Amino acid sequence: MSSSGSSPLWEVFVRARRGLAHTHVGSLHAPDAELALRNARDLYTRRQEGVSIWVVPAGAITASSPDEKDAFFDPAADKVYRHPTFYDVPDGVAHL
Amino acid sequence: MYGNDFAGEDAPGGLLGEVEAAEAELRTAAERDRGAPGPEEDLAAYFTAVVDADQKIEPRDWMPEAYRRTLIRQIAQHAHSEIIGMQPEGNWISRAPSLKRKAILLAKVQDEAGHGLYLYAAAETLGISRDELVELLLSGRQKYSSIFNYPTLTWADVGAIGWLVDGAAIVNQVPLCRCSYGPYARAMIRVCKEESFHQRQGYEILHTLAHGTSAQRAMAQDALDRWWYPSLAMFGPPDGDSTHSAQSMAWKIKRFSNDDLRQRFVDMCVGQAEVLGLTIPDPDLRWNEQRQAYDFTQPDYAELMRVISGDGPCNRERMAHRRRAHEAGAWVREAAAAYAAKQASKEKVPT
Lengths: 96, 351
Fold this sequence. Notes:
- The complex is a heterodimer.
- Chain A has one domain (9-86): Phenylacetic acid degradation B (Ubiquitin-like (UB roll)), CATH 3.10.20.
- The longest helix of chain A is centred in the middle third of the chain and has 12 residues, at 33-44.
- By secondary structure, chain A is of the alpha+beta class.
- Chain A starts with 8 loop residues before the first strand and ends in an 18-residue tail after the last helix.
- A 3-stranded antiparallel β-sheet of chain A has the order 2-1-3, covered by helices on one side.
- Chain A is elongated, with a radius of gyration of 21 Å.
- Chain A has helices at residues 33-44, 69-78; strands at residues 9-15, 22-29, 52-57.
- Helices cover 23% and strands 22% of the residues of chain A.
- Chain B is an all-alpha fold.
- Chain B has one domain: Ferritin.
- Chain B has helices at 4-7, 14-31, 43-52, 65-84, 86-90, 99-124, 130-138, 155-173, 182-210, 214-233, 245-250, 258-276, 301-311, 315-328, 330-348, and strands spanning 286-288, 293-295.
- In chain B, strand 1 and strand 2 form a beta hairpin.
- In chain B, helix 4 (65-84) packs antiparallel against helix 6 and helix 8 (155-173) packs antiparallel against helix 9 (182-210).
- Classes of the chains: A alpha+beta, B mainly alpha.
- Chain A binds chain B through residues 1-3, 5-7, 9, 14, 16, 23, 25-29, 31-32, 35, 42-44, 46-50, 63, 65-70, and chain B through 1-3, 5-6, 35-36, 38, 58, 60-61, 107, 110-111, 114, 117-118, 121, 124, 129-132, 187, 194, 330, 333-334, 336-337, 339-340, 343-344.
Protein backbone atom coordinates (compact mmCIF):
# COMPACT_ATOMS: atom_id res chain seq x y z
CA MET A 1 0.00 0.00 0.00
CA SER A 2 1.05 3.52 -0.64
CA SER A 3 2.62 6.28 1.36
CA SER A 4 1.29 8.44 4.19
CA GLY A 5 -2.05 10.19 4.04
CA SER A 6 -3.22 8.03 1.14
CA SER A 7 -5.99 5.47 1.04
CA PRO A 8 -5.52 1.73 0.71
CA LEU A 9 -6.25 -0.15 -2.51
CA TRP A 10 -9.47 -2.16 -2.88
CA GLU A 11 -10.33 -4.78 -5.47
CA VAL A 12 -13.84 -4.55 -6.90
CA PHE A 13 -16.08 -7.45 -7.97
CA VAL A 14 -19.42 -6.86 -9.66
CA ARG A 15 -22.25 -9.28 -10.38
CA ALA A 16 -23.94 -8.20 -13.57
CA ARG A 17 -27.29 -9.87 -13.05
CA ARG A 18 -28.97 -12.41 -10.86
CA GLY A 19 -27.59 -15.85 -11.55
CA LEU A 20 -24.18 -14.68 -12.70
CA ALA A 21 -21.03 -14.78 -10.59
CA HIS A 22 -19.24 -11.72 -9.29
CA THR A 23 -16.49 -10.75 -11.72
CA HIS A 24 -13.39 -8.75 -10.95
CA VAL A 25 -13.77 -5.38 -12.70
CA GLY A 26 -10.90 -3.33 -11.34
CA SER A 27 -9.56 -1.61 -8.29
CA LEU A 28 -9.73 1.74 -6.56
CA HIS A 29 -8.38 3.66 -3.57
CA ALA A 30 -10.62 4.53 -0.64
CA PRO A 31 -10.01 5.17 3.06
CA ASP A 32 -12.58 2.62 4.25
CA ALA A 33 -14.94 -0.12 3.03
CA GLU A 34 -17.99 2.14 3.02
CA LEU A 35 -16.37 4.70 0.75
CA ALA A 36 -14.83 1.97 -1.38
CA LEU A 37 -18.33 0.64 -1.97
CA ARG A 38 -19.74 4.04 -2.86
CA ASN A 39 -16.85 4.85 -5.18
CA ALA A 40 -17.16 1.44 -6.82
CA ARG A 41 -20.86 2.13 -7.39
CA ASP A 42 -20.03 5.42 -9.10
CA LEU A 43 -17.01 4.14 -10.96
CA TYR A 44 -17.95 0.68 -12.15
CA THR A 45 -21.74 0.64 -12.36
CA ARG A 46 -22.54 3.93 -14.10
CA ARG A 47 -24.18 2.12 -17.01
CA GLN A 48 -26.18 -0.69 -15.46
CA GLU A 49 -23.19 -3.00 -15.36
CA GLY A 50 -24.24 -4.66 -12.15
CA VAL A 51 -26.64 -5.34 -9.31
CA SER A 52 -24.21 -6.40 -6.57
CA ILE A 53 -20.75 -5.17 -5.59
CA TRP A 54 -18.03 -6.70 -3.40
CA VAL A 55 -15.02 -4.66 -2.31
CA VAL A 56 -12.00 -6.41 -0.79
CA PRO A 57 -8.85 -4.76 0.57
CA ALA A 58 -6.14 -5.67 -1.95
CA GLY A 59 -3.89 -6.64 0.97
CA ALA A 60 -6.34 -9.38 1.95
CA ILE A 61 -5.87 -11.22 -1.33
CA THR A 62 -3.28 -13.95 -1.67
CA ALA A 63 -2.49 -14.80 -5.29
CA SER A 64 -0.83 -17.85 -6.81
CA SER A 65 2.43 -17.11 -8.53
CA PRO A 66 2.85 -17.60 -12.29
CA ASP A 67 6.18 -19.37 -11.67
CA GLU A 68 4.56 -22.21 -9.79
CA LYS A 69 1.72 -22.50 -12.28
CA ASP A 70 2.63 -25.91 -13.65
CA ALA A 71 3.40 -27.56 -10.36
CA PHE A 72 0.46 -25.89 -8.70
CA PHE A 73 -2.18 -26.77 -11.26
CA ASP A 74 -0.80 -30.08 -12.51
CA PRO A 75 -3.06 -32.51 -10.61
CA ALA A 76 -6.01 -31.59 -12.83
CA ALA A 77 -4.13 -32.76 -15.89
CA ASP A 78 -2.79 -36.08 -14.56
CA LYS A 79 -6.04 -37.22 -12.98
CA VAL A 80 -8.02 -37.69 -16.14
CA TYR A 81 -10.45 -39.99 -14.34
CA ARG A 82 -11.93 -36.84 -12.80
CA HIS A 83 -13.56 -36.06 -16.14
CA PRO A 84 -16.75 -37.83 -17.19
CA THR A 85 -15.31 -38.33 -20.68
CA PHE A 86 -12.72 -40.75 -19.20
CA TYR A 87 -15.34 -43.49 -18.86
CA ASP A 88 -16.57 -45.75 -21.63
CA VAL A 89 -20.29 -46.16 -21.76
CA PRO A 90 -21.60 -49.35 -23.44
CA ASP A 91 -23.68 -48.77 -26.56
CA GLY A 92 -27.37 -48.44 -26.06
CA VAL A 93 -27.26 -47.06 -22.52
CA ALA A 94 -29.54 -44.05 -22.31
CA HIS A 95 -29.61 -41.09 -19.93
CA LEU A 96 -26.01 -41.56 -18.78
CA MET B 1 -19.27 -5.95 -18.07
CA TYR B 2 -21.36 -3.75 -20.31
CA GLY B 3 -25.12 -4.10 -20.45
CA ASN B 4 -26.27 -5.66 -23.69
CA ASP B 5 -28.79 -2.87 -23.85
CA PHE B 6 -26.15 -0.54 -25.25
CA ALA B 7 -24.36 -2.75 -27.73
CA GLY B 8 -27.62 -3.88 -29.23
CA GLU B 9 -28.91 -0.42 -29.99
CA ASP B 10 -27.25 -0.16 -33.35
CA ALA B 11 -24.98 -2.88 -34.58
CA PRO B 12 -21.45 -1.71 -33.81
CA GLY B 13 -19.52 -0.75 -36.88
CA GLY B 14 -16.46 1.41 -37.34
CA LEU B 15 -14.45 2.18 -34.25
CA LEU B 16 -16.87 0.65 -31.77
CA GLY B 17 -16.85 -2.51 -33.86
CA GLU B 18 -13.09 -2.58 -33.58
CA VAL B 19 -13.34 -2.31 -29.81
CA GLU B 20 -15.72 -5.29 -29.76
CA ALA B 21 -13.31 -7.21 -31.99
CA ALA B 22 -10.42 -6.42 -29.66
CA GLU B 23 -12.48 -7.68 -26.74
CA ALA B 24 -13.23 -10.92 -28.57
CA GLU B 25 -9.54 -11.25 -29.42
CA LEU B 26 -8.67 -10.90 -25.75
CA ARG B 27 -10.85 -13.90 -25.00
CA THR B 28 -9.38 -15.98 -27.83
CA ALA B 29 -5.87 -15.07 -26.74
CA ALA B 30 -6.72 -16.30 -23.25
CA GLU B 31 -7.86 -19.63 -24.67
CA ARG B 32 -4.59 -20.01 -26.56
CA ASP B 33 -2.64 -19.43 -23.33
CA ARG B 34 0.50 -21.53 -23.51
CA GLY B 35 0.90 -21.71 -19.75
CA ALA B 36 3.81 -20.62 -17.60
CA PRO B 37 7.41 -20.80 -18.78
CA GLY B 38 9.02 -24.20 -18.24
CA PRO B 39 11.78 -24.51 -15.63
CA GLU B 40 14.47 -24.37 -18.33
CA GLU B 41 12.82 -21.69 -20.43
CA ASP B 42 14.50 -18.33 -20.67
CA LEU B 43 12.18 -15.64 -19.24
CA ALA B 44 13.06 -13.10 -21.90
CA ALA B 45 12.42 -15.63 -24.68
CA TYR B 46 9.12 -16.53 -23.06
CA PHE B 47 8.12 -12.86 -22.90
CA THR B 48 8.92 -12.37 -26.58
CA ALA B 49 7.02 -15.53 -27.52
CA VAL B 50 3.91 -14.38 -25.64
CA VAL B 51 4.02 -10.95 -27.30
CA ASP B 52 4.66 -12.43 -30.75
CA ALA B 53 1.72 -14.80 -30.34
CA ASP B 54 -0.56 -11.80 -29.59
CA GLN B 55 -1.15 -13.04 -26.08
CA LYS B 56 -1.25 -10.77 -23.06
CA ILE B 57 1.44 -9.97 -20.54
CA GLU B 58 -0.03 -9.92 -17.03
CA PRO B 59 1.18 -8.05 -13.93
CA ARG B 60 3.04 -10.93 -12.30
CA ASP B 61 4.77 -12.09 -15.49
CA TRP B 62 8.41 -11.31 -16.03
CA MET B 63 8.90 -8.32 -18.37
CA PRO B 64 11.89 -6.30 -19.56
CA GLU B 65 12.53 -3.34 -17.28
CA ALA B 66 12.27 -0.93 -20.24
CA TYR B 67 8.85 -2.38 -21.18
CA ARG B 68 7.67 -1.76 -17.63
CA ARG B 69 9.04 1.79 -17.63
CA THR B 70 7.55 2.64 -21.03
CA LEU B 71 4.15 1.36 -19.95
CA ILE B 72 4.25 3.25 -16.65
CA ARG B 73 5.13 6.45 -18.51
CA GLN B 74 2.46 5.98 -21.18
CA ILE B 75 -0.37 4.81 -18.92
CA ALA B 76 0.38 7.44 -16.27
CA GLN B 77 0.42 10.26 -18.78
CA HIS B 78 -2.78 8.91 -20.20
CA ALA B 79 -4.32 8.92 -16.70
CA HIS B 80 -3.04 12.44 -16.00
CA SER B 81 -4.65 13.59 -19.27
CA GLU B 82 -8.03 12.33 -18.16
CA ILE B 83 -7.73 14.18 -14.86
CA ILE B 84 -6.42 17.47 -16.28
CA GLY B 85 -8.89 17.10 -19.16
CA MET B 86 -11.76 17.64 -16.74
CA GLN B 87 -10.75 21.30 -16.40
CA PRO B 88 -11.41 22.75 -19.87
CA GLU B 89 -14.87 21.18 -19.96
CA GLY B 90 -15.55 21.73 -16.27
CA ASN B 91 -15.12 25.38 -17.12
CA TRP B 92 -18.52 25.28 -18.85
CA ILE B 93 -20.57 23.16 -16.44
CA SER B 94 -22.11 26.13 -14.65
CA ARG B 95 -22.74 27.92 -17.94
CA ALA B 96 -24.14 25.10 -20.08
CA PRO B 97 -27.02 26.54 -22.16
CA SER B 98 -29.73 24.08 -21.05
CA LEU B 99 -30.36 21.68 -18.20
CA LYS B 100 -30.08 18.73 -20.60
CA ARG B 101 -26.69 19.88 -21.89
CA LYS B 102 -25.54 20.51 -18.35
CA ALA B 103 -26.55 17.03 -17.17
CA ILE B 104 -24.76 15.46 -20.15
CA LEU B 105 -21.62 17.48 -19.52
CA LEU B 106 -21.64 16.48 -15.85
CA ALA B 107 -21.94 12.81 -16.82
CA LYS B 108 -19.11 13.22 -19.28
CA VAL B 109 -16.76 14.86 -16.80
CA GLN B 110 -17.63 12.11 -14.32
CA ASP B 111 -16.60 9.58 -16.97
CA GLU B 112 -13.25 11.34 -17.43
CA ALA B 113 -12.59 10.99 -13.70
CA GLY B 114 -13.47 7.31 -14.01
CA HIS B 115 -11.10 6.88 -16.97
CA GLY B 116 -8.36 8.47 -14.92
CA LEU B 117 -9.00 5.99 -12.12
CA TYR B 118 -9.10 2.93 -14.43
CA LEU B 119 -5.79 4.04 -15.90
CA TYR B 120 -4.11 4.77 -12.56
CA ALA B 121 -5.23 1.31 -11.46
CA ALA B 122 -3.69 -0.21 -14.61
CA ALA B 123 -0.44 1.68 -14.00
CA GLU B 124 -0.36 0.49 -10.39
CA THR B 125 -0.25 -3.15 -11.54
CA LEU B 126 3.25 -2.29 -12.83
CA GLY B 127 4.50 -1.65 -9.30
CA ILE B 128 4.12 2.08 -8.84
CA SER B 129 1.61 3.68 -6.47
CA ARG B 130 -0.98 6.23 -7.49
CA ASP B 131 0.43 8.67 -4.94
CA GLU B 132 3.81 8.49 -6.65
CA LEU B 133 2.18 9.09 -10.03
CA VAL B 134 0.21 12.07 -8.74
CA GLU B 135 3.43 13.42 -7.27
CA LEU B 136 5.17 13.03 -10.66
CA LEU B 137 2.36 15.02 -12.29
CA LEU B 138 2.31 17.77 -9.66
CA SER B 139 6.06 18.19 -9.78
CA GLY B 140 5.93 18.44 -13.58
CA ARG B 141 8.08 15.36 -14.18
CA GLN B 142 5.29 13.59 -16.04
CA LYS B 143 3.19 15.20 -18.76
CA TYR B 144 -0.41 15.10 -19.88
CA SER B 145 -1.88 15.56 -23.34
CA SER B 146 -0.94 18.84 -25.01
CA ILE B 147 -4.55 19.47 -25.99
CA PHE B 148 -5.74 20.36 -22.50
CA ASN B 149 -3.53 23.43 -22.47
CA TYR B 150 -5.92 25.19 -24.83
CA PRO B 151 -8.71 27.37 -23.41
CA THR B 152 -12.46 26.79 -23.81
CA LEU B 153 -13.65 30.23 -24.87
CA THR B 154 -17.23 29.49 -25.92
CA TRP B 155 -19.91 26.84 -25.43
CA ALA B 156 -19.15 25.54 -28.92
CA ASP B 157 -15.70 24.57 -27.66
CA VAL B 158 -17.37 21.92 -25.51
CA GLY B 159 -18.79 20.47 -28.73
CA ALA B 160 -15.47 20.72 -30.53
CA ILE B 161 -13.71 18.94 -27.66
CA GLY B 162 -16.21 16.11 -27.78
CA TRP B 163 -16.09 15.68 -31.53
CA LEU B 164 -12.43 16.40 -32.29
CA VAL B 165 -10.50 15.85 -29.08
CA ASP B 166 -12.40 12.79 -27.93
CA GLY B 167 -12.54 11.66 -31.56
CA ALA B 168 -8.75 11.88 -31.83
CA ALA B 169 -8.45 10.13 -28.48
CA ILE B 170 -10.59 7.24 -29.72
CA VAL B 171 -8.61 6.84 -32.93
CA ASN B 172 -5.51 6.71 -30.76
CA GLN B 173 -6.98 4.40 -28.15
CA VAL B 174 -8.82 1.84 -30.25
CA PRO B 175 -5.55 0.17 -31.31
CA LEU B 176 -4.48 0.22 -27.64
CA CYS B 177 -7.36 -2.17 -26.94
CA ARG B 178 -5.02 -4.72 -28.55
CA CYS B 179 -1.99 -3.66 -26.52
CA SER B 180 0.22 -6.51 -25.31
CA TYR B 181 -0.19 -5.52 -21.64
CA GLY B 182 -3.44 -7.08 -20.41
CA PRO B 183 -4.51 -4.53 -17.77
CA TYR B 184 -3.96 -1.63 -20.19
CA ALA B 185 -5.82 -3.38 -23.02
CA ARG B 186 -8.77 -4.10 -20.72
CA ALA B 187 -8.86 -0.51 -19.42
CA MET B 188 -8.79 0.81 -22.99
CA ILE B 189 -11.74 -1.36 -24.00
CA ARG B 190 -13.76 0.09 -21.16
CA VAL B 191 -12.60 3.65 -21.88
CA CYS B 192 -13.27 3.47 -25.62
CA LYS B 193 -16.85 2.38 -25.13
CA GLU B 194 -17.52 5.38 -22.93
CA GLU B 195 -15.44 7.75 -25.05
CA SER B 196 -17.73 6.97 -27.93
CA PHE B 197 -20.59 8.60 -26.03
CA HIS B 198 -18.41 11.68 -25.52
CA GLN B 199 -17.58 11.99 -29.18
CA ARG B 200 -21.20 11.69 -30.23
CA GLN B 201 -22.48 14.20 -27.68
CA GLY B 202 -19.87 16.70 -28.88
CA TYR B 203 -20.86 16.13 -32.48
CA GLU B 204 -24.49 16.68 -31.59
CA ILE B 205 -23.69 19.99 -29.90
CA LEU B 206 -21.89 21.23 -33.01
CA HIS B 207 -24.61 19.91 -35.29
CA THR B 208 -27.27 21.78 -33.32
CA LEU B 209 -25.24 24.98 -33.34
CA ALA B 210 -24.33 24.69 -37.02
CA HIS B 211 -28.02 24.41 -37.89
CA GLY B 212 -29.15 27.19 -35.54
CA THR B 213 -28.96 30.95 -35.85
CA SER B 214 -26.15 32.56 -37.81
CA ALA B 215 -24.47 33.56 -34.54
CA GLN B 216 -24.56 29.93 -33.33
CA ARG B 217 -23.23 28.75 -36.67
CA ALA B 218 -20.37 31.24 -36.50
CA MET B 219 -19.58 30.09 -32.97
CA ALA B 220 -19.41 26.45 -34.13
CA GLN B 221 -17.14 27.35 -37.05
CA ASP B 222 -14.88 29.39 -34.78
CA ALA B 223 -14.53 26.45 -32.39
CA LEU B 224 -13.60 24.12 -35.27
CA ASP B 225 -11.08 26.70 -36.51
CA ARG B 226 -9.35 26.84 -33.15
CA TRP B 227 -9.43 23.13 -32.24
CA TRP B 228 -8.56 21.51 -35.59
CA TYR B 229 -4.77 21.79 -35.54
CA PRO B 230 -4.30 21.20 -31.80
CA SER B 231 -6.37 18.01 -32.31
CA LEU B 232 -4.13 16.88 -35.16
CA ALA B 233 -1.13 17.54 -32.92
CA MET B 234 -2.56 15.13 -30.32
CA PHE B 235 -1.16 12.24 -32.35
CA GLY B 236 2.34 13.37 -31.45
CA PRO B 237 5.37 14.32 -33.52
CA PRO B 238 5.73 13.02 -37.09
CA ASP B 239 7.10 9.48 -37.40
CA GLY B 240 10.62 10.65 -38.18
CA ASP B 241 10.85 12.48 -34.84
CA SER B 242 9.03 10.04 -32.60
CA THR B 243 11.49 8.69 -30.05
CA HIS B 244 9.57 5.79 -28.51
CA SER B 245 7.82 4.46 -31.60
CA ALA B 246 9.98 1.62 -32.92
CA GLN B 247 10.41 -0.17 -29.60
CA SER B 248 6.76 0.33 -28.66
CA MET B 249 5.68 -1.17 -31.98
CA ALA B 250 7.97 -4.18 -31.49
CA TRP B 251 6.49 -4.75 -28.03
CA LYS B 252 2.99 -4.34 -29.44
CA ILE B 253 2.23 -1.48 -27.09
CA LYS B 254 1.61 0.69 -30.14
CA ARG B 255 0.06 -0.77 -33.27
CA PHE B 256 0.20 2.15 -35.71
CA SER B 257 2.53 5.09 -36.17
CA ASN B 258 1.59 8.65 -35.18
CA ASP B 259 1.26 9.67 -38.83
CA ASP B 260 -0.92 6.67 -39.73
CA LEU B 261 -3.34 7.48 -36.94
CA ARG B 262 -3.37 11.18 -37.82
CA GLN B 263 -4.22 10.31 -41.42
CA ARG B 264 -6.99 8.02 -40.29
CA PHE B 265 -8.42 10.79 -38.12
CA VAL B 266 -8.38 13.34 -40.97
CA ASP B 267 -10.05 10.86 -43.33
CA MET B 268 -12.80 10.30 -40.77
CA CYS B 269 -13.35 13.98 -39.99
CA VAL B 270 -13.80 15.26 -43.53
CA GLY B 271 -17.13 13.53 -44.08
CA GLN B 272 -18.29 14.35 -40.57
CA ALA B 273 -17.51 18.07 -41.09
CA GLU B 274 -19.49 18.01 -44.33
CA VAL B 275 -22.56 16.73 -42.53
CA LEU B 276 -22.11 19.46 -39.95
CA GLY B 277 -21.95 21.98 -42.76
CA LEU B 278 -18.72 23.39 -41.30
CA THR B 279 -15.42 24.02 -43.03
CA ILE B 280 -12.18 22.44 -41.88
CA PRO B 281 -9.69 25.32 -41.68
CA ASP B 282 -7.20 23.89 -44.17
CA PRO B 283 -7.10 25.32 -47.71
CA ASP B 284 -4.87 22.44 -48.85
CA LEU B 285 -7.17 19.69 -47.68
CA ARG B 286 -8.09 17.57 -50.69
CA TRP B 287 -8.73 13.97 -51.71
CA ASN B 288 -5.72 12.21 -53.14
CA GLU B 289 -6.95 9.58 -55.59
CA GLN B 290 -3.60 7.84 -55.69
CA ARG B 291 -3.20 7.44 -51.95
CA GLN B 292 -6.94 6.95 -51.39
CA ALA B 293 -6.61 9.40 -48.52
CA TYR B 294 -6.81 13.13 -47.87
CA ASP B 295 -3.81 15.39 -48.27
CA PHE B 296 -3.74 17.93 -45.48
CA THR B 297 -1.58 20.57 -43.83
CA GLN B 298 0.44 19.25 -40.91
CA PRO B 299 -0.05 20.93 -37.53
CA ASP B 300 2.65 23.27 -36.25
CA TYR B 301 5.01 20.86 -34.49
CA ALA B 302 7.11 23.68 -33.08
CA GLU B 303 3.99 24.87 -31.28
CA LEU B 304 3.33 21.31 -30.08
CA MET B 305 6.83 21.16 -28.58
CA ARG B 306 6.33 24.53 -26.88
CA VAL B 307 3.04 23.40 -25.38
CA ILE B 308 4.47 20.05 -24.23
CA SER B 309 7.40 21.78 -22.58
CA GLY B 310 5.03 23.91 -20.50
CA ASP B 311 4.57 27.05 -22.55
CA GLY B 312 1.07 26.67 -23.99
CA PRO B 313 -1.85 29.02 -23.38
CA CYS B 314 -3.13 27.30 -20.22
CA ASN B 315 -0.29 25.08 -18.89
CA ARG B 316 0.30 27.19 -15.79
CA GLU B 317 -3.38 27.59 -15.04
CA ARG B 318 -4.09 23.84 -15.37
CA MET B 319 -1.21 22.84 -13.11
CA ALA B 320 -1.92 25.56 -10.57
CA HIS B 321 -5.53 24.43 -10.37
CA ARG B 322 -4.55 20.79 -9.92
CA ARG B 323 -1.98 21.64 -7.22
CA ARG B 324 -4.45 23.88 -5.42
CA ALA B 325 -7.08 21.13 -5.36
CA HIS B 326 -4.50 18.66 -4.04
CA GLU B 327 -3.23 20.96 -1.30
CA ALA B 328 -6.62 22.29 -0.28
CA GLY B 329 -7.93 18.72 -0.10
CA ALA B 330 -5.18 17.48 2.22
CA TRP B 331 -7.20 17.96 5.40
CA VAL B 332 -10.16 16.06 3.91
CA ARG B 333 -7.94 13.10 3.05
CA GLU B 334 -6.47 13.19 6.56
CA ALA B 335 -9.94 13.32 8.10
CA ALA B 336 -11.07 10.32 6.03
CA ALA B 337 -7.97 8.36 7.03
CA ALA B 338 -8.42 9.24 10.71
CA TYR B 339 -12.08 8.22 10.59
CA ALA B 340 -11.20 4.91 8.90
CA ALA B 341 -8.55 4.22 11.54
CA LYS B 342 -11.01 4.99 14.33
CA GLN B 343 -13.68 2.71 12.86
CA ALA B 344 -11.13 -0.07 12.37
CA SER B 345 -9.94 0.16 15.99
CA LYS B 346 -13.55 0.06 17.24
CA GLU B 347 -14.20 -3.15 15.32
CA LYS B 348 -11.27 -4.86 17.02
CA VAL B 349 -12.65 -4.26 20.53
CA PRO B 350 -15.00 -7.10 21.47
CA THR B 351 -18.31 -5.84 22.80
